[in-house]
């Protein structure tokens, strides 16, 4: 089946620096993507989403970039804070619009160093 | 506002014992409901989803079953747990429209010993 995966399992950045988390997807028909943040022992929390008719979307301190040509998705976090330490997952819902949920990547563990 | 409740938070069960995890959603009607499992340090695997009362779709063959006795209640069960059933179980709900985002519960850490 189609898959969504991440390039790096762990990313360590200094507090205050910007971080970029990358995600590759293989389903060229995917048209909706989501980033989740999961803190230890908790459920994933929605951060930001983007549709395939966009290439960039911004939230509070976060920006998602979508490159459909190379099937690549990234999450940029500006001015990282200790509370940003978590595992970040990208997910896609394909193009069928069905009810069969999201397909998740393996996740990237973001570590914020003081 | 919508909320999702999942319990218990942690559970330790012997091999061969039964399992019942419950999830309820408040503040919305006719949600799509999901059970995911997450192995340590890994991504989320979809186990079951439901688009309505009594309607269950299974994504992977396994030792588990799901039921939806009420509109906003989703139950994950097993008659006899296996060691391989250990993991972090997450319930989620969605609004039922295309390209939906999902909202997750706080999870249940299940250890089968």
Structural class of chain A: mainly beta
Distinct helical segment count of chain A: 0
The largest pleated sheet of chain A is described as: 6 strands, mixed
**Shape summary of chain B:** globular
Distance between the termini of chain A: 41 Å
Order of helices and strands of chain A: EEEEEEEEEEE
The average pLDDT value of chain A, as a whole number, equals 88
Global morphology of chain A: globular
- Figure out the total of helices of chain B: 0
- What structural class do helix, strand and pairing data of chain B support? mainly beta
Q: Which pair has the most extensive contact?
A: A-B, 25 and 28 residues
Helical fraction of chain B: under 10%
Oligomer: heterodimer
Helicity range of chain A: under 10%
Order of helices and strands of chain B: EEEEEEEEEEE
Quantity of strands of chain B, as a count: 11
Please state roughly what percent of the residues of chain A sit in beta strands, choosing from under 5%, 5-15%, 15-25%, 25-35%, 35-45% or over 45%: over 45%
Question: How do the helices and strands line up, and which of them pair or pack?
Answer:
The complex is a heterodimer of chains A (114) and B (113).
Chain A: E1 4-6, E2 10-14, E3 19-25, E4 32-38, E5 45-51, E6 56-58, E7 62-67, E8 72-77, E9 86-92, E10 103-104, E11 108-113
Chain B: E1 3-7, E2 10-13, E3 19-26, E4 32-38, E5 44-52, E6 55-58, E7 65-70, E8 73-78, E9 87-94, E10 103-104, E11 108-112
Parallel strand pairs in B: 2-11
Antiparallel strand pairs in B: 1-3, 3-8, 4-5, 4-9, 5-6, 7-8, 9-10, 9-11
């Amino acid at each position: 089946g189609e898959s969504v995966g991440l390039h790096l399992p762990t990313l360590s950045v200094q507090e205050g620096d910007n971080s970029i988390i990358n995600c590759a997807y293989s389903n060229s028909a995917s048209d909706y993507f989501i980033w989740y943040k999961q803190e230890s022992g908790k459920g994933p929390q929605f951060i930001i989403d983007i549709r395939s008719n966009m290439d960039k979307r911004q939230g509070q301190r976060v920006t998602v970039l979508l490159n459909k040509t190379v099937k690549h998705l990234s999450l940029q976090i500006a001015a990282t804070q200790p509370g940003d330490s978590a595992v970040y997952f990208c997910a896609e819902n394909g193009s069928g619009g069905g009810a069969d949920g999201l397909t998740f990547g393996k996740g990237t563990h973001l570590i914020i160093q003081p | 506002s919508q909320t999702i409740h999942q319990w218990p938070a942690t559970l330790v069960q012997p091999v061969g014992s039964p399992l019942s995890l419950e999830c309820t959603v408040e503040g919305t009607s006719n949600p799509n409901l999901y059970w995911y499992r997450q192995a340590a340090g890994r991504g989320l695997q979809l186990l079951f989803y439901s688009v309505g009362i009594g309607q269950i779709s299974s994504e992977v063959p396994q030792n588990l079953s799901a039921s939806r006795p009420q509109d906003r209640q989703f139950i994950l069960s097993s008659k006899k747990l296996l060691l391989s059933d250990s993991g972090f179980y997450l319930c989620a709900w969605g609004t039922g429209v295309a390209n939906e985002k999902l909202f997750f519960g706080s999870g249940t850490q299940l250890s089968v010993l």
